[in-house]
Amino acid sequence: MGADQDWTFLRRHLVEGDVLDITPGAPENELLLSRYLARRLEIATGDTITVYLVKGREDIRPRKFRVRGIFETGVEAFDHQVVLVDIAHLQRFAQWGLQAEILVLDSVVPGGVLVEGLAFGGDRIFRYTWPGTDFEGKGPHRVELPPETSRRITLVVHDADSTLPDTSWVELRGEKPRFTPVHSRGGGELVYDSIAVERGGSGGSHTLYAGGFEVALDDFDDLLEMDDRVYRELPIELRTLSVRERFPEIFAWLDLLDTNVIVVIVLMIIVAIINMTSALLIIILERTTMIGVLKALGASNGAIRRIFLIDAAYILGTGILLGDLLGIGLCLLQQTTGLVTLPIESYYVNAVPVLLDPVAIVLLNAGTLLVCVAALVLPSALVSRIAPARAIRFE
C-alpha cells in the first residue's frame, strides 16, 4: 500500500484497530491482517508477527511487523491470502530500482579525502558516473578540498538492464587545515585533521517502482473500453488484468443475482396480471346491468372498456403505492440497522445490502402499471359481448 491508497473500503470492513499510517515519520513495521488469518495465527491487534519475504530459494528474509488492524471483507480469495504492508518494504526487498551511495573513507590524504562509489539493486552490473569530475569507475578517488570552502561530489549509478538510475551526493568540508612540510620539495602539503560530511540524494529509485497499478473507474460500464485503452498504451512485456478477470467468481455470483431479480420481477408481474384479470372480470360481471344501461343510452363499447380499465389502473396504482411504502420502509430499516444478516462465507457480505435508487423505483412502478393495464385490455373485451336488452332484462 502506498501513500495514495484510498482507505474508504477497508475502513468499512475493519474489525479491530486502524488502517496503516503511511506518512513520513510514521511507524514503518506495521501491517493489516484479515480476521481469518488472525484467528488461525491466534494473534490480535498490537501483537508482533514475523513475516518471511521470499524472493527465491536462497533469499528468504524474516521481518517483524506489529499488527495495526484486522479486517474482514468477505471475499475468501482476499481474506485468506492478502496481508497489507507499506509498499516500501517490498520495493527495498525486491530491489526493483538502484540505490547509490558515496563512501567517504576514514583516511585523510594530503589536500583532501578518498571517496568510493557504492551501488545496490538492479542487475549488479553497475556504471558509475561522477558529474563535474574526471573520475571513472567506483574508485576510490581522491577529492581535493580547497581551504575554507566545501566541495560537493555527485554520483549517478546506472546498470545494464535499463533500471531507473539513482543519484547521491556528499558535501565535504575540511576542518582544522594545517601545512605539513615536505623537505624534499622545499614546501608543504595541506592536511585536514577531520572532514565534515553532509549527505543527500534521491534515496534510491526503488520508490519509483511498483508491482502493478490500479485504475479506478467512475462508471463500471466503461470497464472493457478502458481495459483496451490501457493495454494499447502499455509496453509489450506488460499486461492488464480487469477486475472481472481477477475475481470471476464474484461477478458470476452477481450475474446469478441479477438473473434471480429478473425472474422474481417477471413472476410477480404475472401474478399481478392474473389477480387483476380475475378482479376485472368480477367487476364486469357485477356491473352487467350498468353496462346494459350505458349501452342503451348510447355509450360505445370502447368508452365502457375505458371506464373499467381506468378503474383497474386506480386499483393497481393504490396497490403499488401501498407496496412502495411497505417495501421502502423495510429497506430503510435494513439499510440503517442491518437487521437481516447473511453468512459472509457464502454471500461476501454479512448483511443484506440495500440500495434505494429513486429512478429505478419510479421506472419499475410505471413499467408494472403499464404492463398490467395493457394485459387487461383483452379481458375488458368481455364488455362488448354483453347485450343491453339481456342485461337489463336480467336485472
Explain what this protein looks like in three dimensions.
This protein has 395 residues and is α+β, with helices and mostly antiparallel strands. The chain folds into four domains: 8-94, Barwin-like endoglucanases; 98-208; 212-246, no CATH class; 249-394, no CATH class. It has helices at 8-12, 35-41, 76-79, 87-94, 223-233, 243-246, 248-286, 288-296, 301-337, 344-347, 358-375, 388-394, and strands at 14-17, 30-34, 48-54, 60-71, 84-85, 98-109, 112-121, 126-129, 141-144, 150-159, 166-182, 187-201. The strands form three sheets. Strands 1, 2, 3, 4 and 5 form a five-stranded mixed β-sheet that branches. A four-stranded antiparallel β-sheet has the order 8-10-11-12, with no helix packed on it. The protein is rod-shaped, with a radius of gyration of 39 Å.
The main pleated sheet reads as: 5 strands, mixed
Structural class: alpha+beta
What is the number of domains? 4
Q: Name the shape in a single word.
A: rod-shaped
Uncertain runs = none
The percent range for strand residues is 25-35%
Report the order of strands and helices.
HEEHEEHEHEEEEEEEHHHHHHHH
Number of helices: 12
The average pLDDT value, as a whole number, equals 82
Radius of gyration: 39 Å
Tally of extended strands?
12
Characteristic terms for this protein:
395 residues; alpha+beta; Barwin-like endoglucanases; 12 helices; 12 strands
